[in-house]
Amino acid sequence: MTRFPALRASRFGILLLLAAATAAPALAVRRTEDPLALVPADAVTVGVIHWNALRSSPLSAKVFADLDHLSGDGDAARFLAETGLTPSEDIDTIVIAMSPGEAGSKESESGLVLFEGRFDLSRIGKALTERGAKSLTSPGGAYYLLAEKGGEPGAVSLVNKNLIVCGHEGSVTAALARRESGGAGGLTSGQGLGHHLSRVDEDASAWALIDLTRMPAMRRADGHGEGEPSQALMGAMKSVTLLALQATVHGDSVDVAATGLSNDAENRDLIADSLRGVLAMWRLAVSEKSPEMVPVIRRFQIDTDPDGVSIRGTLPGSFLRELSQTRHANASR
Q: What is the pLDDT of residues 140-195, one digit of tens each?
């Protein structure tokens, strides 16, 4: 008579063990492959470039041509040849982030760059080793410590055939740890700049978030803008806490947008008015040399909300090509 309760207890214990074993995978932290999740939440800036979205655009031809010109640059050419890497074809997305160091000094800032695409890991690893890189292991994964050439040595982690992480050694090992923890403490956790991801279209060809509260150099207004609207805008920018920028390529043109956040309603109004003044000055400046730009500028929209001010519009390819030619001409002087 006493055997049945014991048997039932034994079976109950087995059932508990089976239930625990079944639930364990669901409770375990899942590794993440989202590059934004690997960016630290305390990043001061984060920028994303979707190269794959630019390939079909005629505006991107020069950019990719410049990348491929690395094939004529000494060791860079040899590295590309040894790894079989063609940047314009093999890289889809680049994520760039900067985080503050102690006291926010420039010397202690740490950078992180993540590449998504298609990579031959064995060939890249061999090329790095032949250049003196040391293969090391951290709790989050393996990485290469590059040969030091003055300053802090960089590190590269060949995470998988579709993801490479580069940066300072501490930044790379921390990113690998976030990957193993499912993105805990990363940008997609909604902390820091991650709280403002809704301010940009993550599918845009390129976008960036900049925390101006921790970049005082960008907040300083020196008053040297040309014209009163520009000077007023520079002054009002002192109250802006965050900048959200994005650009989306459509054929031969680019849709651009910028948003500045400010908790001061009076300054938000001043920024909006100053932007309208700047656009008016721009129209006057191009009315004789490039009259076709006047209607383009008129279509720029300026909007305000309880948190910030936004400006958005479309730049035609003709303007961008002219701007590029002007910059090249000035650079060659």
A: 999 999 987 666 779 999 999 999 999 999 999 999 999 999 989 899 999 999 99
Bridge partners of 210, per DSSP, are 45, 243
- Give the long-range contacts of residues 106-111, CB within 8 A, separation 24 or more: 109/44, 110/167, 110/168, 110/170, 110/171, 111/167, 111/168, 111/171
Give tens-digit pLDDT for 198-225.
999 999 999 999 999 987 665 554 545 4
Taking the C-alpha atoms of residue 31 and residue 241, their distance in angstroms, rounded to an integer, is 33
Assess contact for 261 and 240: CB atoms under 8 A: yes
Helix axes 265-286, 228-236, angle to 10 degrees: 150
Tell me the whole-structure pTM to 2 decimals: 0.81
The Cα–Cα gap between 319 and 204 comes to: 20
CA of 200: how far to CAs of 10, 92, 132, 203, in Å? 57, 19, 40, 9
- Please, which pLDDT band fits residue 87 given cuts at 50, 70 and 90? confident
What token pair was written down for 89?
A: 């074809």
Amino acid identity, position 118: R
Residue with tokens 């239930």: 19
Q: For the packed helices 74-83 and 121-130, what is the interaxial angle rounded to 10 degrees?
A: 140
Report the C-alpha gap between 324 and 88 in whole angstroms.
Answer: 20
